[in-house]
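ENTRY TYPE: paired fold submission
RECORD: A
CONTENT: sequence, then structure tokens
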Amino acid sequence: MKLNMYSDSGHAWLKVSKKMLIELGIANKISSYSYQRGSYAYLEEDCDFPLFAKAYKAINKTLEVIEHHTDRQSKIRNYDSYFFSDFLTNHFSPFYNFSIITNDSKDVKS
């Protein structure tokens, strides 16, 4: 599979579908140092990308990374930080009829 890696002078992120993170069983392990926009997560290069690569390799798949670099600040830095509870609330709870409980509030979405 070919995936895109975007970088600026300070960091890099791998663009991966959120669905793939669920399928690999790692969606809840991605840190808030990664970003999200729409149905994609942009995995931070130091922790989250290696986690993804290890999970992907474990299912005997080959990963090809296509690199894109900008000398400017990447627009990815302006995307929302990745939070698994946000992902569930926005993408799955309407379909599966479950509630998400957080420490700072009771029922978030059902």
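RECORD: B
CONTENT: sequence, then structure tokens
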Amino acid sequence: MIKHFVNLGRDRLACKSKGLLLVLFRRSGVRFESAAYAVEAAVQGEGVLLGRSALVSADLAAGRLVRPFDLSLKSRWSYYVVDPQGALRHRKVRAFRDWLFSEMANG
């Protein structure tokens, strides 16, 4: 199991709600402080990873990673786009925001 720092209590409850049992062997596997490194290790065949869809969608689409189960767990975390008041008056800021939203919508 490739590990990234996670909230194991929350993740175990989320898995249980989907009928899965999350089992981690604390003495084995590699542990990364960066989710990107953990994903890359999985791509290289070093183990199994529970990954955020935003981080693994391109690798799934390209066939570098496979999804063994047809389910997903909802994260309690969110991302917000914030900007100073009046920033959207600038064409470049609007263009960046529109591009970002488009990328998020297309997964």
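NOTES ON RECORD B: The beta strands are 3-4, 31-32. The longest helix spans residues 91-105.
STATUS: closed
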